[in-house]
Amino acid sequence: MSMIMQWSGVSGEQVAALLTASSEDLWEWLESEAGLAHTFDLDKAWHGVHATLTGTDWASDTVLGQAVLGGTEFGEDDGYGPPRHLPSAQVAEIADALDQLGTERFAASIDLALLRRLDIYPSTWDDPAEVTWLTESFEILRAGYRPFADQGLDVVVTLT
Question: Could you report the per-residue pLDDT of 98-136, keeping only the tens digit for each?
């Protein structure tokens, strides 16, 4: 079974309704045309990107740590934890921090031995090609946050 993390940009009007929606209604919206229009995911690379950004397995107490594992939990736990909400001001702060870090510095900080030692999902950190996979995934994360920030959107993060 794969654990895939998804980020969805949500307008102020939509977020109020989603934060109080039933789990079924939230997922229906996330999978709708409107929800998918402002969505990106990192497939299974999310935990490796987080560990590279923070040097930890689960800590999210920095701005970069908030990029993957941040936000306030809400709603029901559908298996891998409840969805999380990041307000637009925090989204902008994260987007700026990701831009400031940049791809080259991110790639230079990838430590496959650390990822193995921390038992980072998906636990396949033996192939040097995974540096490319994580770097490309960081670019997706960085490119995904920027339009959310520029449009003043909140973000809903889900792990399925």
Answer: 999 999 999 999 999 999 999 999 988 999 999 999 999
Cα–Cα distance for residue pair 132/97, rounded to 1 Å: 21
* Threshold 0.90, pTM exceeds: yes
* Longest Cα separation, the chain: 45
Cis peptide before 122 (omega within 30 of 0): yes
The SS3 assignment for 43 reads coil
**Residue 17 bridge partners (DSSP):** none
Cβ-based neighbours of 68, under 8 Å, separated by 6 or more:
5, 42, 46, 47, 49, 50, 53, 60, 141, 157
Query: Domain-by-domain residue ranges, the chain?
Result: 5-159
Q: Residue 1: which pLDDT band, with cuts at 50, 70 and 90?
A: low
CATH architecture of 5-159: 3-Layer(aba) Sandwich (3.40)
